[in-house]
TrEMBL record:
Keyword entries, A-Z: Methyltransferase, Transferase
Any one GO BP annotation for this protein: methylation
UniProt KW ATP-binding keyword: no
Cross-referenced CDD domains: AdoMet_MTases
Protein known as: Methyltransferase
Residue ranges annotated for the Methyltransferase domain, each copy included: 47-138
Keyword check for Methyltransferase: yes
MF (Gene Ontology): methyltransferase activity
Matching InterPro entries: Diverse_substrate_MTase, Methyltransf_25, SAM-dependent_MTases_sf
Length: 280
């Protein structure tokens, strides 16, 4: 868990309606890459911890008998359930819970995945619990956008979103230290998942990078949704100044482009660790 920060239920309050539109998707083929790496065959159970609106849960559902997504934000789970119905996914269930609530009576799993969520948890405690919940040889999976990717080879056909100016605007409204729920992240969020998983008793580490780089066209509404999908600029943080902030945000965007932006889709990094076969 980030230094000096305590989780609270407002971390992503109000972000659920913006999440699917605002966030760029994972690299195409990430689900197939994971299925190949772990030899998934349509059997066993998946647990997605901090599942949000079910983005990863639903993409992986076809590789398992059952998938379960847990998240403390009920609005996120409502979005996940709606999307599951829209896609016709019938083997998914959704549970309101934090990672620290595990095992929560959920049973045994073949794979437990954390997609850009592990850093919000009490990592040593959660990793030890997940080890107990996995079947022998089961996998702990950590997914994220690739950090420090190589420079993109080709220029974008449209202006990129003005991320630096957006960050400056957020700081003008919310202060210089990154907000997160009712607290702040003075030192950012932690990394070095490899050390945490080794302490917990996992082994057989593998790393897979799923390439992307495709150009994604974005509108001003998409960029606004991205801002409000983030924990450090979730709608509730602005209080009664939310409308003022959104108006100023759209002015910043308008200064760069009328309504058309472009981004390169980031590569996806997948890291896996296995529970030793000798452990129960």
């Amino acid at each position: 868990m980030p230094d000096g920060w305590q989780w609270d239920s407002t971390l992503f309050k109000g972000s659920a309606p913006y999440y699917e539109r605002g966030r760029l998707p994972y690299a195409p083929g990430f689900a197939e890459t994971l299925a190949t790496a772990l030899g998934l065959d349509g059997q066993g159970r998946l647990l997605d911890v901090g599942c949000g609106p079910g983005t990863v849960t639903l993409a992986l559902a076809r590789f398992f008998t059952e998938v379960a997504g847990i998240d403390p934000d009920e609005d996120m789970l409502a979005e996940a359930e709606r999307e599951a119905r829209r896609r016709g996914v019938t083997n998914a269930r959704w549970v309101t819970a934090r990672a620290e609530d595990l095992p929560a009576g959920l049973g045994e799993f073949r794979v437990v995945v954390f997609a850009q969520s592990f850093h919000w948890t009490d990592r040593d405690r959660v990793a030890a619990t997940v080890l107990e919940m996995l079947e022998p040889g089961g996998a702990f999976v950590h997914m994220s956008d690739l950090k420090n990717p190589p420079a993109e080879p080709a220029p974008l056909p449209l202006p990129a979103p003005p991320f630096a100016q957006i960050s400056d605007l957020v700081r003008r409204y919310l202060g210089p230290v990154r907000r997160a729920g009712q607290g702040t992240l003075v030192n950012g969020t932690p990394n070095r998942e490899d050390l945490v998983l080794a302490r917990a008793g996992f082994d057989h580490f593998e790393r897979h990078v799923v390439p992307a780089g495709e150009v994604v066209n974005r509108t001003a509404d998409d960029i606004v949704a991205w801002v409000f999908s983030r924990s450090d600029s979730a709608p509730h943080l602005f209080g009664d100044r939310l409308e003022d902030f959104e108006r100023d945000l759209r002015v910043v965007l308008q200064q760069v482009s009328d309504n058309s932006f472009a981004e390169h889709l980031p590569a996806t990094e997948i890291m896996t660790w296995l529970k030793p076969h000798g452990e129960r």
